[in-house]
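ok so I'm stuck.
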Amino acid sequence: MPAANDLNCKVYIDTSTERAELARQISALTGGAVERFTVTAACAEMDVQLNEEFDEKRRAEFPDGFLYFRYVVEMYTSPGEEAQCRHLVAKIVGYFWSNTIPCVAACDYEDELPNRGGYNSTAVPWAK
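replied:
not stuck anymore, here's the structure
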């Protein structure tokens, strides 16, 4: 298990998939191990959480509705692994977008991600 201690990124995902299944999908995608709702990959630990701010109506508001998506995945990065984790975040958002699932990454490096992490991008799927 990495010594993950810095909150590096939040990935907001809007899907009706069950939380445990979402954690399994992220685990398979990242090559990490899943325990309950936490995925531990080589460079980070990812906690799949129900978004306490979830709002059925507000999630469809563009561009800030992502703050009200059903899930938020908090990514804690191991020291020195930031570049590898950027690649993982890009892989995660790309996977969900390719499956027409709304997903937005909020992090200091979102400008370096495809579609700038999805924020304010009409090129990615959005909640309806």
